[in-house]
């Protein structure tokens, strides 16, 4: 029992340290921590989720929750903000954050839950246990977790976080109110980056911000990290300084490759593709994703005919699959470019 208590103490210290970062106490804190929203109101986007959670705060009661969605969109941030608002000034004592895929094993995680739940809640009516990465737990471990959830249901609420709810067993899903977190929208990321840039006294042009949004793909953590990394190089953040820190192809280059291929210039498109992959070091997977983004953009703004778009997406999907299965990315991408030629002629 003593050992378990000590472990909990250490975890609380970790949370306290994180809080120091959040409050900006440390000059060298990574910006993702320094600018982690502190309240539900500060969380960017996720409007439906936030609205429902605020209702729980108002009622002073909440069921077990499940947060699902892609990385870096605010699941952990929202749980901490919710805990603070639900539990008030004693939130730290009554909030336990655990990672379900903890290297020390699921038994350790369950012991931590047990020893935490056995203690009486201090200063608030119940406790909140936040369990991250639940989709990495085996089915057996999930069944054990379900029993724990039932045992402590009077005194504790669980927030389970995962990327894919389909990997969670039904008995757990049915015990939780499910909240789906979505990628943060481009205009919301822009606003947030502008806010951070201003607070840091950074000069940044809109082209650079748009480039960050393009690379972030709705992941706010990635957006803030790219901003911080590109700012350390010099005072002004430009499109070039952003491109330098991201080892992906420049949007301009991808556009050129796609256009050349659609214009029937296979050799030109292939040369540029080689340049981007060899010189800039873009991976095959990233390249396919970026080609897909570019083609989708063209279909949206009407510069690509819908039938051609449908054909291309089919080919892109196949290329993506083959590369992931281990085929040579260069050969696969060049083969993809030939599909563009065929389609341009069909136009
Ligand atoms: N919706 C958001 N509004 C404002 N900042 C955000 C948002 N989402 C993420 N961030 C920023 O990104 C950081 C990481 O977010 P968070 O830990 O909440 O992501 P997550 O959804 O839990 O991701 P993962 O699935 O990887 O655990 C935060 O500290 C914050 O700086
Ligand atoms: Mg998280």
UniProtKB/TrEMBL annotation:
GO terms for cellular component: DNA replication factor C complex. Residues 61-187 form the AAA+ ATPase domain. The keyword ATP-binding applies. It comes from the Archaea. SUPFAM superfamilies: P-loop containing nucleoside triphosphate hydrolases, post-AAA+ oligomerization domain-like. One of its GO terms (molecular function) is DNA clamp loader activity. GO terms for biological process: DNA repair; DNA-templated DNA replication. ATP binds at residues 69-76. It holds the Pfam family RCF1-5-like_lid. Keywords: ATP-binding, DNA replication, Nucleotide-binding. Gene3D superfamilies: 1.10.8.60, 1.20.272.10, P-loop containing nucleotide triphosphate hydrolases. SMART domains: AAA. Heteromultimer composed of small subunits (RfcS) and large subunits (RfcL). NCBIfam families: PRK00440.1. HAMAP family: RfcS (MF_01509). Belongs to the activator 1 small subunits family. RfcS subfamily. Part of the RFC clamp loader complex which loads the PCNA sliding clamp onto DNA. This is Replication factor C small subunit. The gene is rfcS.
């Amino acid at each position: 029992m003593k050992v378990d208590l000590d472990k909990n103490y250490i975890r609380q210290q970790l949370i306290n340290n994180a809080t120091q970062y959040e409050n900006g106490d440390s000059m060298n804190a990574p910006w993702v921590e320094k600018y982690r929203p502190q309240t539900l109101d500060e969380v960017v986007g996720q409007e439906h989720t936030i609205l429902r959670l605020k209702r729980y705060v108002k009622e002073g009661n909440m069921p077990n929750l499940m947060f699902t969605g892609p990385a870096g969109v605010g699941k952990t941030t929202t749980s901490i903000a919710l805990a603070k608002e639900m539990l008030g000034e004693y939130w730290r004592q009554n909030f336990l954050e655990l990672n379900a895929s903890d290297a020390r094993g699921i038994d350790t995680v369950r012991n931590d839950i047990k020893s935490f739940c056995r203690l009486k809640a201090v200063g608030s009516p119940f406790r909140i246990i936040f369990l991250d990465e639940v989709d990495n737990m085996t089915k057996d471990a999930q069944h054990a977790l379900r029993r724990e959830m039932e045992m402590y249901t009077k005194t504790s609420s669980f927030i389970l976080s995962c990327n894919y709810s389909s990997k969670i067993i039904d008995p757990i899903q049915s015990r939780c109110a499910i909240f789906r977190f979505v990628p943060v929208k481009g205009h919301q990321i822009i606003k947030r980056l502008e806010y951070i840039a201003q607070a840091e006294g950074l000069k940044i042009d809109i082209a650079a911000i748009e480039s960050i949004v393009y690379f972030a793909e709705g992941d706010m953590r990635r957006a803030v990290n790219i901003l911080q990394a590109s700012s350390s190089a010099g005072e002004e953040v430009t499109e070039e300084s952003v491109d330098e820190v991201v080892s992906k192809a420049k949007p301009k280059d991808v556009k050129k490759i796609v256009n050349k291929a659609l214009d029937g210039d296979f050799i030109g498109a292939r040369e540029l593709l080689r340049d981007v992959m060899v010189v800039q070091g873009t991976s095959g997977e990233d390249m396919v994703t970026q080609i897909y983004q570019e083609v989708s953009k063209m279909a949206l703004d009407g510069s690509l005919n819908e039938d051609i778009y449908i054909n291309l997406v089919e080919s892109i999907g196949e290329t993506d699959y083959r590369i992931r299965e281990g085929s040579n990315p260069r050969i696969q991408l060049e083969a993809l470019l030939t599909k563009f030629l065929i389609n341009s002629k069909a136009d």
